[in-house]
Write a structure and sequence with these properties.
The structure holds two protein chains of two kinds. Chain A is α+β, with helices and mostly antiparallel strands. Chain A is built from 20 helices and 15 strands. Chain A has helices spanning 10-18, 41-54, 64-67, 93-98, 100-113, 129-138, 153-158, 180-186, 208-213, 223-236, 253-263, 285-298, 310-316, 328-332, 383-393, 396-404, 422-427, 440-446, 448-457, 462-478; strands at 86-92, 118-124, 145-149, 187-188, 191-192, 195-200, 202-207, 270-273, 276-279, 321-325, 348-351, 367-368, 370-375, 408-409, 431-432. A six-stranded mixed beta sheet of chain A has the order 2-1-3-13-6-14, with helices on both faces. In chain A, strand 8 (270-273) and strand 9 form a beta hairpin. Chain A starts with 9 loop residues before the first helix and ends with a helix. Chain B has helices at 28-63, 70-74, 85-91, 94-127, 130-145, 148-158, 165-172, 190-216, 221-229, 234-262, 266-271, 283-293, 297-328. Helix content of chain B is 70%, strand content 0%. Classes of the chains: A alpha+beta, B mainly alpha. At the A-B interface, helix 1, helix 6, helix 7, helix 18 and helix 19 of A face helix 1, helix 2, helix 6, helix 11 and helix 12 of B.
C-alpha cells in the first residue's frame, strides 16, 4: 500500500475508546438487512437524477434514468436492492482530492442500475481505516464497499471478512486485462475476492535546476550514470550544509526492497513451503549493501525516519532527488499550506530508477506496485447492490476519468489514457509485490521492515540486519491466525 | 474491593447499625423499609457502573481466556476457550517482562517528577504576587485545556529531526550534535523515553499544581504562626505542618498519577509516528499493538488484565485514603 500515513492520529484515540464496545459479537449483522425500505425509493430516485445531471464529464447517463437504456459501465437496471435506500461506500481520500468526478459518474450510473438506492461515499484515511473497519464490522455496521491497500487484502480475505467475487468477475468491464500486480493481491486459494481499482509505481523525482548547477544535462538512464551524477551534485553543493543529493530516510523499506528484487528477478520477501514461511532478505545482502552505500554516501535524511515527510522536505530545499510515487511530484510543487512549494513546478522532473544489478544497462529497477482494490465485506447487508456500485466505479467510463487524473487505471486496455509521465509507465514494466500471506499485514504494521532498513542506514552490516529481520518476519508469518 | 482493612467506626450511614437504641424495633417492616432506602438510592449508580465498567471488564476477562484473533472479530469464526494459553504466552515471553519493568521504572520516574515539580509550583504560587499567580494559573489552564492528541502532535513537531525548533535552538546555543538529532532511536531509547516523560509531566502538571495549591490554601495560618513562635524554621514548618495537612491530597494525586502514567498511550504512539519501535513500548502500547495491530485480541486482553491487576494494588492506597477522608468529615 501507499505509505501515505497522514497525520490523522486523532481517530486512533477515539478507537481505543470504542475497543470495549467492539466486542459485542456478530449477531446483529444480519438483523438490519431485512428492512428493505421501498418507501424512500421515490425521494432517492429524484436525488439520483439530480446527481446524474450534475455529473459533468461522465457518460451519457443523464437521460438514462427513465428509459433505462443499457450503456457501458453497468448502467442497466440490475434488479439489486439495498436496505434503507442507502449504500455505504468507504474510499480513501485520494479519490476525493484526485478524481471526484469519477466518483460522481459512478454514483450516477449506479443510481440508474439500482433505482431507489443512493451511494453514500465516506472518505477514510490510510493510517486508520483498518482499525475503523475492524470496529465497524465487529459492531455490525459493516460498510457495503471498502477500498483496501493491495498489500492488506490477504489478511482480510483469509479471515473470511470479504465476499467471493469469482462469479461476478466476468461481468466487470476490462476484467480480462486487469493489472496483474493488483489481481495478484485479490486472488487467494484460487478464488477472486476483490476488484482492482488503481495502481501507482515509484520513480525518482529530481530538481532540474540543481542538476543544471552541477553541470548535468540529462536525467540518468543507467545506474552508473546516476552514481556519477550524484557525485557531481555532492561536489557542486559541498558547501551547503545538510544537502542531500539523494534523500532516503532510513525506514524507507519500499526502496531498499526494490534493490533486492532488482538483484534477483524471482525475489520474494518470503516464500512458503507448505504452511511454513521463510524470509529471504539475507540472501540479498549484496544488493542491500548497494542501497546502504547509496544512502550513507548521498543522503542526509534521518536514518531513523520514514518517508512520510519526504515531499515537504524536498519542497523545503537542499534535496536534489527523492524516490517516490509518481504523484508525489505534484505534492512537492503543491500549495505551501500543504507543505509544497509552487515555485518548484517547472523545476521538477521524474525518471525511472535504473537497475543497480545491471549498472550499465538501461533496465529499470523493479518498483513496488502500490495500489488499491475494492471489496465487499461478507457482512454487508447489500451484496448485490455493492457489486453494482463497484461495477460502475471500475467501469470503462469512470476508469477513464481516474486515468486522466494521473493514476494508473486497473486495466492494461486503458493504460494509454493515463496522464502519468512516460517515466511512470516505464517504471511499471518491472514490478515486485509483497507475499500473499494471511499475516503479511502484521509484518508491515509491526515495523520489522522499517527496523531492518533503519539499521542498515545506520551502518549495521546488511547480512546481520537481514538475518535478524528474516527470523522476525518468519515468526510473524508462521504465527497461528 | 476488599479494602476496608481497618474496620471503620460505625458511622451513622451504615444501614444495618441499630440507629438509636430508644426507639428500636417497633415494627420490623418499617425497619426493613428504612434499611433498604440507601440501597435503592445507590441502585442507579450501581447499574450505570456495572453497565459502563463491569460489562467491558467482564468481556475483557472472558476474551483473555479465548483464542480470539482477527478472524474471530471480523470473520465471525468461533472463539474457543483456550484456558490459560494467553497468559502462559505472555508470561513466557521475555519481552513482556522487559516492557513491564520498563513501564514500572518509567512510571515511577514520571510520577515522582510530576509530584515534586507540582508541589514546588504550588508552593511558588502561594508566595508570588496576585498578578503573577493569575498569570501562572492562566498558563496552567491553557496547557490543561489543550486536547492531548493536539498537544502531543505539537511536541512532535517541536522535536522533529529536521524542522524541529528544539533541535534548532540546541544547535544555536552551541550543542551542535543536536543539529539533526532523532530523539527516538531504538538502539539508544533513553532520550525518547525521557522526552515522552517530559510531555506526560507537562500534561499532568496543571491538575497537580491546581489541586495542591487549593489544598495549600487550607493550611491554617495560626498553625504556621504557632510553630514559628515555638522556634520552627521554614523547613521544619514545611515538614511538620504543611506536609501532614497536604498528605491526604498528596496521596490521591500520586495514586491518580500512577494510574494515568502506567497506562500511557497517546504520547508514545503519536511521537513514534504511529508505529513506535518496540524499544519504546510501555504496557499500554504493548496491549494495543498485540490486539489491534497484530490482531491477537486474546493476548491483548490478557495483557490488559495483568495491567488491571497491577493497578488494583495502587488503587488500594487511593481507596483507603478516600475512606479516611470520609471518616474525618
Amino acid at each position: 500500500m501507499k505509505a501515505r500515513y497522514v497525520a490523522s492520529v486523532g481517530i486512533a484515540v477515539a478507537l481505543t475508546a470504542t475497543a470495549c464496545g467492539s466486542s459485542s459479537s456478530s449477531t446483529s449483522a444480519s438483523g438490519t438487512s431485512s428492512a428493505a425500505a421501498t418507501s424512500t425509493a421515490a425521494a432517492a430516485a429524484t436525488s439520483a437524477a439530480a446527481a446524474a445531471t450534475s455529473a459533468a464529464g461522465g457518460a451519457a447517463t443523464s437521460a438514462a434514468v427513465a428509459s433505462a437504456a443499457p450503456t457501458s459501465g453497468g448502467a442497466a437496471v440490475s434488479g439489486a436492492k439495498c436496505a434503507n435506500g442507502k449504500l455505504t461506500v468507504w474510499l480513501m481520500s485520494d479519490a476525493q482530492t484526485g478524481w471526484a468526478n469519477a466518483v460522481a459518474s459512478a454514483n450516477a450510473s449506479f443510481a440508474t442500475a439500482v433505482p431507489g438506492c443512493t451511494a453514500d461515499v465516506q472518505y477514510q484515511s490510510w493510517g486508520t481505516y483498518q482499525d475503523k473497519l475492524t470496529a465497524a464490522i465487529s459492531g455490525g455496521q459493516a460498510p457495503d464497499v471498502v477500498e483496501f491497500g493491495n498489500s492488506q487484502t490477504t489478511k482480510w480475505i483469509a479471515s473470511d471478512a470479504l465476499s467471493d467475487a469469482t462469479a461476478e468477475k466476468a461481468s466487470f468491464d476490462n476484467s480480462s486485462t486487469w493489472l496483474s500486480g493488483l489481481t495478484t493481491s485479490c486472488v487467494y486459494q484460487g478464488k477472486t475476492w476483490c476488484v482492482p481499482y488503481y495502481a501507482g509505481t515509484r520513480v525518482v523525482i529530481y530538481r532540474k535546476d540543481m542538476f543544471a548547477k552541477a553541470g548535468i544535462t540529462a536525467a540518468p538512464t543507467t545506474y552508473n550514470e546516476l552514481i556519477a551524477d550524484l557525485a557531481k551534485l555532492k561536489a557542486a553543493y559541498a558547501s551547503t550544509a545538510g544537502f542531500s543529493a539523494f534523500y532516503v530516510p532510513g525506514k524507507y523499506w519500499y526502496f531498499g526492497t526494490a534493490f533486492a528484487a532488482d538483484a534477483d528477478p524471482n525475489f520474494q520477501i518470503a516464500t512458503a513451503n507448505g504452511d511454513k514461511w521463510t524470509a529471504n532478505y539475507a540472501a540479498q545482502a549484496a544488493a542491500l549493501t548497494k542501497w546502504q552505500t547509496l544512502v550513507k554516501t548521498y543522503s542526509k535524511a534521518d536514518p531513523n525516519g520514514d518517508e512520510a515527510k519526504q515531499d515537504a522536505s524536498m519542497a523545503a530545499g537542499n534535496i536534489a532527488m527523492i524516490y517516490g510515487n509518481g504523484w508525489e511530484e505534484g505534492v512537492v510543487s503543491g500549495p505551501k499550506k500543504s507543505g509544497g512549494d509552487p515555485a518548484l513546478a517547472s523545476q521538477l522532473g521524474v525518471f525511472p530508477m535504473p537497475s543497480a544489478a545491471k549498472p550499465d544497462s538501461t533496465d529499470v529497477m523493479p518498483s513496488f506496485v502500490g495500489g488499491s482494490d475494492l471489496a465487499v465485506p461478507s457482512k454487508s447487508a447489500n451484496q448485490a447492490a455493492a457489486w453494482q456500485w463497484i461495477k460502475a466505479y471500475t467501469g470503462t467510463t469512470a476508469m477513464g476519468l481516474i486515468a486522466k487524473a494521473g493514476a494508473i487505471p486497473n486495466n492494461t486496455a486503458q493504460i494509454a489514457l493515463a496522464k502519468a509521465d512516460p517515466a511512470v509507465k516505464t517504471a511499471a514494466t518491472r514490478t515486485w509485490f509483497v507475499p500473499i500471506a494471511p499475516n503479511w499485514s502484521n509484518v508491515e504494521s509491526g515495523g520489522t521492515l522499517q527496523d531492518l532498513f533503519s539499521k542498515i542506514a545506520n551502518g549495521t552490516a546488511p547480512a546481520t540486519a537481514a538475518a535478524a529481520a528474516d527470523s522476525a518476519i518468519a515468526t510473524t508469518l508462521n504465527a497461528s491466525q | 474491593m476488599a479494602v476496608e482493612t481497618q474496620a471503620p467506626r460505625p458511622a451513622g450511614r451504615r444501614p444495618s447499625a441499630p440507629s438509636s437504641g430508644a426507639a428500636g424495633g417497633t415494627s420490623s417492616r418499617r425497619r426493613l423499609r428504612r434499611a433498604s432506602v440507601p440501597y435503592l438510592l445507590i441502585l442507579p449508580t450501581v447499574v450505570v457502573v456495572a453497565a459502563v465498567l463491569g460489562y467491558p471488564l467482564w468481556k475483557l476477562f472472558d476474551i483473555s481466556f479465548r483464542h480470539y484473533g482477527f478472524a474471530q472479530i471480523v470473520g465471525g469464526k468461533a472463539a474457543p476457550h483456550n484456558g490459560l494459553a494467553n497468559y502462559r504466552a505472555i508470561f513466557d515471553d521475555n519481552f513482556f517482562w522487559t516492557v513491564l519493568v520498563r513501564t514500572v521504572v518509567w512510571t515511577t520516574a514520571v510520577v515522582v517528577a510530576t509530584v515534586l515539580i507540582g508541589l514546588a509550583l504550588a508552593l511558588l504560587m502561594e508566595r508570588i504576587s496576585r498578578w503573577a499567580r493569575l498569570l501562572l494559573t492562566f498558563v496552567l489552564i491553557a496547557a490543561w485545556s489543550m486536547p492531548r492528541v493536539v498537544a502531543t502532535e505539537m511536541w512532535k513537531w517541536m522535536t522533529d529531526y529536521q524542522f524541529g525548533v528544539l533541535n534548532y535552538s540546541l544547535d544555536k546555543i552551541g550543542l551542535h550534535q543536536f543539529r539533526s538529532y532523532n530523539w527516538f532511536v531504538p538502539s539508544r531509547p533513553l532520550p525518547g523515553l525521557i522526552l515522552v516523560g517530559i510531555v506526560v509531566v507537562w500534561g499532568a502538571l496543571p491538575f497537580v499544581v491546581i489541586t495542591l495549591y487549593a489544598s495549600l490554601t487550607q493550611v491554617p495560618k495560626e498553625l504556621v504562626e504557632a510553630a514559628t513562635c515555638d522556634g520552627a524554621g521554614p523547613t521544619t514548618v514545611f515538614r511538620m505542618v504543611t506536609i501532614p495537612i497536604l498528605r491526604p491530597v498528596l496521596v490521591i494525586v500520586t495514586s491518580l498519577s500512577i494510574i494515568w502514567d502506567f497506562g500511557v498511550f497517546d504520547q508514545i504512539y503519536i511521537m513514534g509516528d504511529n508505529v513506535p519501535d518496540k524499544a519504546f513500548w510501555l504496557m499500554g502500547v504493548y496491549a494495543y499493538s498485540d490486539a489491534f495491530r497484530q490482531g491477537y485480541f486474546g493476548l491483548g486482553a490478557a495483557i490488559s488484565i495483568v495491567m488491571v491487576a497491577v493497578l488494583l494494588v495502587v488503587t488500594v492506597f487511593y481507596v483507603r485514603q478516600m475512606i479516611r477522608l470520609g471518616e474525618t468529615e
